[in-house]
Structures are given as structure tokens and as C-alpha cells.
Write a structure and sequence with these properties.
Blueprint: H1 47-53, H2 62-67, E1 69-75, H3 84-92, E2 96-97, E3 117-118, E4 121-127, H4 128-154
């Protein structure tokens, strides 16, 4: 009866002879580890860049804001396909691609060309004054939406009793806490 041989009981004639004759031992070429331990670098962490280019983050004086540049990671591809309308929207809002040459050896080897792209995300920049404008527009839009919501909540549909006026507190007063 033919039996399937166990890996421990293989005979030399059953073993496959090595086919390649160009096998050589790998020699140490002297390379070094760049990090030790479990050091993991987040490729999207650009806090050090932001500290240099936008130290006030848009909350400084107009003169400071005029000298600052804002950076942001935006979508480059989704499932391998570019969304050109989204890229056009970025462009319309003042965002421009950051080239590898702006930060040599940071995101790619020195001498690389093209925009900084990491895992389907693209690094973009715009003047901080445009970011401040966008923040102000967002704040106005959100405030308007809250005002409309509060007004609708205060109104009653026809045939229903009037709503009680909601108490909307925009500030807090200090209270005394008994001991």
C-alpha cells in the first residue's frame, strides 16, 4: 500500500535537487536602520511644516496672516480614479499642489518631481488669508442655519396651540455653589 510520506521521514532520493546554480550567499552591504524600535512615522503629520509656514494658524494680526501659508491634505484619487470636479473645486477655493521640490527628502527622494502624493492624498497649499475668509463664511453659514432652526422650532403649525418661547442662552452667568 502506498503511503503519503511524513515530512520527517523523507528519503534523500525523494527530495528535489536544487535547480539553480547561481545561488550565492547574500553579503552584508553595510546598510543601516533609519529608526529604532517600533517607531512609526505618520506620513500625513505636517505639524512641523505648519509651525514654520503658519505659526498663528490664521488667528494673528492681518500682517501676520498676509505672510502665512496654509497646508492641507486633500483627496487625490478614490479607488484609483481621479475626481476632476473635486480637483476643480479645490482650485476654485485657492488650493494649489505642493511640489516635492518644496520639501526635498521629506516625502520622496531628493530630485523627485511632481506634486506631493501620499496614499491617494495630495498635499495642497493656499494663502492663509483665503483660509480665514473660508472660516468666516462657514461661521456665518452655520449661524444662519441655527437661527432658521430656532425660528422654525418656535412656530406652531396651523391648528396647534402656540409654542412656548424657547429659552436660548448665548451666555452663562456665574452661580453660587453652597458649601
Amino acid at each position: 500500500m502506498d503511503r503519503i510520506p511524513s515530512p520527517n521521514n523523507l528519503r534523500n532520493e525523494d527530495q528535489r535537487p536544487e535547480q539553480r546554480s547561481d545561488i550565492r550567499p547574500i553579503t552584508d552591504d553595510g546598510r543601516q536602520r533609519m529608526r529604532t524600535g517600533d517607531a512609526v512615522i505618520n506620513p500625513y503629520d505636517i505639524d512641523d511644516i505648519r509651525r514654520v509656514y503658519c505659526p498663528t494658524n490664521g488667528y494673528g494680526t492681518p500682517e501676520q496672516i498676509a505672510r502665512e501659508t496654509d497646508f492641507q491634505w486633500n483627496t487625490y484619487e478614490t479607488y484609483g480614479k481621479r475626481d476632476y470636479s473635486l480637483h476643480r473645486a479645490y482650485h476654485d477655493q485657492g488650493w494649489r499642489n505642493v511640489p516635492y521640490s518644496m520639501f526635498p527628502d521629506r516625502f520622496a527622494p531628493a530630485g523627485s518631481e511632481g506634486p506631493v502624493i501620499v496614499n491617494d492624498m495630495i498635499l495642497m497649499e493656499r494663502p492663509m488669508r483665503l483660509t480665514v475668509q473660508a472660516r468666516q463664511e462657514d461661521y456665518v453659514r452655520a449661524t444662519r442655519a441655527m437661527q432658521v432652526h430656532r425660528q422654525k422650532m418656535a412656530e406652531a403649525p396651523e391648528g396647534q396651540a402656540p409654542r412656548t418661547t424657547p429659552v436660548i442662552r448665548t451666555s452663562r452667568e456665574a452661580i453660587e455653589i453652597p458649601e
